[in-house]
Amino acid sequence: MANDKLHLSITELRTEIARLELGDPSARDRIEQLIAQLEQQDQDPEDLTPGRAASQELPGLIERFEVEHPELTLVLNRIMVSLSNMGI
Fold it and tell me: Under 8 Å CB-to-CB from 38, ≥6 apart: which residues?
């Protein structure tokens, strides 16, 4: 169940960043890296390493985007909750 939510959140994240003009190439790179980590976690739920790396990255991304991109922040928060529910 938690993996289903993670998979859905990854899709929502991809949709949201496609809509946004992030302006800062490093911000887009950080989000793309996060997506890669989440996809690794989704593909191999037994290996918690990618999920842990994503969990460490999420708070900084949330703080960075919370004012300018509230919808993106909501998706990032859902991902953080999904990872937490997976025990990561």
Answer: 6, 9, 10, 13, 50, 51, 54, 79
Neighbours of 33 (CB within 10 A): 13
Which residue from 2, 19, 27, 14 is spatially nearest to 75, judged by alpha carbons?
14
With tokens 């390493």, the residue in question is 49
Domain housing 51:
2-85
**Span 47-67, pLDDT tens digits:** 999 999 999 999 999 998 888
Domain count, the chain: 1
Q: Tell me: the pLDDT tens digits for 67-79?
A: 888 989 999 999 9
> Is pLDDT of 24 > 80?
no
- C-alpha angle 6-64-71 in degrees, rounded to nearest 5: 50
The gap from C-alpha 86 to its chain's centroid, in whole angstroms, comes to 14
